[in-house]
Amino acid sequence: MASLRRNLLISLLVSLSIAATLGGYATYRVALTEIDEVMDYNLRQFALSLRSEFLGQPAPPIGAPDESLDFVIQIWDRQGLRLYLSHPHSSLPSQAQLGYATVTTPDARWRTFSVAAPGRVIQVAQPLGVRSTLAAQAALRTLLPFVAMLPVMGGLIWYLVGRGLRPLARLTRAVKNRQADALEPLSAAGVPEEAQPLVEALNGLLARLATALATQRAFVADAAHELRTPLAALQLQAQLAERAASPAELAESLAELRRGLTRATHVVAQLLTLARQGPDAQGRKRREPVDLSELAGLAIAEMLPLAEAKGIDLGAGKLDAAPLDGDREGLRSLLANLLDNAIRYTPAGGQVNVSVCQEGPRVLLEVADSGPGIPPADRERVFDRFYRRDGQEESGSGLGLAIVRGVAQAHAATVELAESELGGLAARVWLPRSQS
Amino acid sequence: MRLLLAEDDPMIGASVQRGLRQEGHGVDWIRDGREIEPALAATPYDLLLLDLGLPGRGGLEALTGLRAAGHSLPVLILTARDAVTDRIQGLDRGADDYLIKPFDLDELAARIRALLRRQAGRADPVIRNGPLSFDPATRQVTLEDQPVALSAREQALLAALLEQPGRPLSRAQLEERIYGWGEEVESNAVEVHIHSLRRKLGADTIKNLRGVGYFIPRVE
């Protein structure tokens, strides 16, 4: 695994080495220029001094020079005849131009200075290798302390990076040691600026988790609470059945008990539907092409017996083909709940109309009834889980519209309650049309 | 006894009303918290059964209101809220007892009897007056230690008269004690039941104070 500390150490050391090498090379170049100047000067002075030495003398009876002498001296007479060569084995050319010149011979490169004296030409030559060696030595001398310091630098970098990362290690421990339900934000105290976004992002995640968890807990608590009511009714109805003194009374009590069971079953089914619509369940939902009109037709057929039993005229208005990408089961319960509400709250003899039509890029589903409607002030709250309006005789689960909203949200659809043309409530759902 | 039931759930309300009527109580049922105080002002109820999740006016709010208005009748809270804090709050606001849904009908009846007994200042669960005794729990009436078979209405009428021996109750008061709203009351129902009681318990058991009402003489 990539270690920040190791990566920093290696990259810093490599950078430092590159910088040192470049510095060394620069030193070498500068030193070489300076050495060139000094040495050229020396070369010239040496040649000139030789000239004055030979002035007016017939021949140069110079003995073999010291072996350690780098300079090679040549002397010619006017006719170009070499009178003297200090290092006989050297391969310098036997002619020269006056002044400075650089000459390359098979074994070395030379810097030469030639000067004319009366009756002679004197040339002093020096191998260039001497100069570059000197410059390289100068460069190495400047590099040496750095090379010696490299291990120390490495150790220092290792330590300092480690110290800089210590707040991250603390953060890691703080996160690791948490209980699963400890969702309070992490402290940003002592965390370096660079790690603040991480802490903020973590805290954001923790806050979202806390909200989701609180919602779940509230849902479970609400659900448990809401189940008590139908269960209480069941217990009472069962006890009344036990007490029944006559067959007629028993039959009546059992019928009551059956209604209570139907209601309890309905509440449980609605709770399950709602839990399946929860935000955590969305990711697992399968989308498939569905036709909303077809689903609406099926829902109407399913609800027809209930509507007829209550004397309500349930039917469809316009049912345009409305292809969607959706969750069939979710849309089915959306339709069932809207229809159930409409039938439940519309008095006998009323009318419930379902229509599906295209509206631009969206599909509009409308369930309109001739019931008492809902005053505008209440139209938002009725979507809350377990909310029941005051003075409501009907005993719904209080979950129908919460389910409708959950399904709508999962489909990126909007829900609106308004007044219907029939005088009652109109529930309108706008769904985005299929992409294809 | 005449009880007021404030409960918004139709199934629970219907069952409690039916079950308590079988126990011999007159039970009136309202579904809105705002109807509690007018009902208490109009009828002298012996006990209030109060659901906390009432529409209109929440049960606790209604309770605070009726206590502030000086109603001292026993109040039994029936609720699905089971948290300890809810129970404490309910009792501190003036309730006398607290029963959590789902509950047992027999337990509810027993708690009602206990509350009514305490309200009447009695410790003995059996109401006694001379040779006559009535056990509200078993609804058993005995005369000289011999059980006497009475109808539910007769029992309710006898219980009302035995509650405060020596104090006459008018025909209207007796009707109110034994019939809930909407129950069919024949014009001479009280007289019929009194006649039947006298026949079963002895003519002198229940006295008539002309123009005032009926009473059972206190026997020490």
| Poorly predicted runs of chain B | none
Total number of beta strands of chain B: 11
The main sheet of chain B orders its strands as 2-1-3-4-5
Radius of gyration of chain A: 50 Å
- Largest β sheet strand count, sense and barrel closure of chain A: 5 strands, antiparallel
Question: What is the string of helix and strand elements of chain B?
Answer: EHEHEHEHEHEEEEHHHEE
Distance between the termini of chain B: 24 Å
Helix content of chain B: 25-40%
Structural class of chain B, please?
Answer: alpha/beta
Report the strand count of chain A: 12
Task: Give the low-confidence spans of chain A.
Answer: none
Defining key terms:
heterodimer, A: 436 residues, alpha+beta, 7 helices, 52% helix, B: 220 residues, alpha/beta, five-stranded parallel sheet, four-stranded antiparallel sheet, 11 strands
Outline the secondary-structure elements:
The complex is a heterodimer of chains A (436) and B (220).
Chain A: H1 4-54, E1 72-77, E2 82-85, E3 99-105, E4 108-117, E5 120-127, H2 128-176, H3 196-243, H4 247-276, E6 288-291, H5 292-309, E7 313-319, E8 323-326, H6 328-345, E9 351-359, E10 362-369, H7 400-410, E11 414-419, E12 425-432
Parallel strand pairs in A: 7-9
Antiparallel strand pairs in A: 1-2, 1-5, 3-4, 4-5, 6-8, 9-10, 10-12, 11-12
Helix pairs in contact in A: 1-2, 3-4, 5-6, 6-7
Chain B: E1 2-6, H1 10-22, E2 26-30, H2 36-42, E3 47-51, H3 59-68, E4 75-79, H4 84-92, E5 97-100, H5 105-119, E6 127-129, E7 132-135, E8 140-143, E9 146-148, H6 152-163, H7 171-178, H8 189-201, E10 207-209, E11 213-215
Parallel strand pairs in B: 1-2, 1-3, 3-4, 4-5
Antiparallel strand pairs in B: 6-7, 7-8, 8-9, 10-11
Helix pairs in contact in B: 6-8
